[in-house]
Amino acid sequence: MYMTTLPLSVQGSSSTLGVTTVSGSTSLPTGSPGFQVELNNIGNTTIYVQWGKGAQTAAVATSYPVQAGHAKVVTVPFSADTIAAIHSGTGTQNLIITPVVGS
User: Fold this and answer.
1) How many Cβ atoms sit within 10 Å of the Cβ of residue 12?
2) Cα separation of 28 and 50, whole Å?
3) Given phi > 0 = left and psi -120 to 50 = alpha, else beta, which region is 60?
4) Which of 4, 22, 93, 97 has the smallest C-beta neighbourhood within 10 Å, fewest atoms?
5) Where are the chain's structural domains?
6) What's the CA gap between 23 and 56, in Å, rounded?
7) Whole-number pLDDT of residue 9
């Protein structure tokens, strides 16, 4: 069986979440639920993310890690409308969230 690999196609505008050592959240970009998002950590420490419906709280011990300087593409559940993030370093780091489709 062969798997087709498609290039990523941007499905809407990116948003930027300023991430600190206290969990903060924002609405997922339009077009995200049921699609994929690219999570781009442009900071210098790992950012941990949590998504779901309504208020969300990210935790270093249990949330999904995005390493410093890396981008990951993840599938967002249809019910999700919010993403939260936290990091364990110092200062504020930025997480860029872009709705995409492809593989």
Assistant:
1) 15
2) 11
3) alpha
4) 4
5) 18-101
6) 9
7) 76
- Residue 29 C-alpha from the chain's centroid: 10
Q: Structure tokens of 75? A: 């599938």
Both tokens of residue 41? 């950590």
Whole-model pTM: value is 0.87
Alpha-carbon span 69 to 87, nearest angstrom: 13
* b/e burial code for range 42-74 (CB count within 10 A of at least 16 → b): ebebbbbbbbbeeebebeeeebeebeeeeeeee
Lowest mean pLDDT among 36-45, 62-71, 73-82: 73-82
